[in-house]
Amino acid sequence: MKSKILTILAVGLFIIACSSPAKEPKKNSGWKPEMDQPSELASIMRELHDEAKQRKSTLEKGELAEANSQLIFQMITAEPTEPHMVGPAFEPHAQAFIASYGQLNIATDVATQIDAHNNLVKSCVACHMNFCQGPIPRIEKLYIH
Ligand code: HEC
User: Is 130 among the domain residues?
Assistant: First the structure.
């Protein structure tokens, strides 16, 4: 019984922590960090999000983007805001993400890198479906159509 209540509490926290930023008023498309110190994982996510936005605009200008973030490798061991934000399926998702990221650098022309970029965004969303649904609408804006 007690553990059930704890689970409910934990799930509640998870939902709050992961969905509240999406509910914020959308004054501008740039997304501002919250007042509390972000977790290690949240900081990595913010950087990856910024990097992907940058890459999108570079590609839309018809130029190849560099993709050499070392943060992707820290994702697996980084501390999340709440321990239950990561779970057994987290690492395979992170590995899939890292593999997708590598494809960005294999691309030698813009069209190929756009495909690789869109695939990467897909792997962001795939992990987020399982672990952190709040930012998904924001992540989906990263797709290049
Ligand atoms: C392996 C799983 C996984 C992948 C892949 C992933 N994320 Fe995340 N993301 C998370 C988790 C878990 C959190 C919650 C982190 C926390 O609050 O500590 C998060 C949080 C975020 C946040 C909110 C950060 C904050 O300030 O609270 C954004 C934005 C985000 N991710 C964007 C992205 C983008 C963009 C990508 C792809 C480039 C991506 N994520 C890939 C799991 C993932």
Answer: yes
